[in-house]
Amino acid sequence: MRPLLAERGCTVAPGLRLRTLTEVIDHLGADGQTGIIDGTEIRVRRTAAGRKDREKFISGKNKQNAVKSMVVTDAEGRLLFCSPAEPASCADITHARKLGLVKLLTDGPAMEILADAGYQGLGAQTGRRVITPPHRKSKKNPPQWYEEMHEHQRKAHSSRRIRVEPGIGHLKNWRTLARHHGHRKHMSDIIQAVAGLLPHQQSATLSGGTRT
Fold first, then answer.
1. pTM, 2 dp
2. Using one digit for the tens of pLDDT, what is the confidence trace for 95-110?
3. Which domain holds residue 67?
């Protein structure tokens, strides 16, 4: 069942499902919509002692055994895509490049993708289609006006990008994605299956609330 559910993709409208990152970029670019990307980690069992790839799954951020998925939402935080799982040691920007995001944006329609500092550098590679927090250019004894301007720009970016967090939060509400105790080889299918089921769950919840 897992592979079948994973292939369904995310339902964004009646009769419209997005199954690949290419379809997501085309969907956002067709209407000039803003997308948001972020990486999320899911804890998994520790690799057996003696395995050569044991260190690959240790997260550099949380120092825990985990896998990572890149999540894409629209500007309202609606889930559009979850990538296959990568070991947590893979950097966010490296993961995005592996998925072909740079080529898709460079060759695709004019649009903007909001991202955090983990994707710093993609902007220059995609014709400024990926927008990350402003880079601090003056680090040593900057004037007060520069500090205030930088902080204002950083908060403005964060307030737009924060909509991705509820989308990730809804994923983590599923127990299997809070911490996975099964085999890691199934993680890609599980993540994408949950992403495909999530819109239906949210619609059922809203309908139930309306009836009451």
1. 0.85
2. 999 999 999 999 988 8
3. 2-203
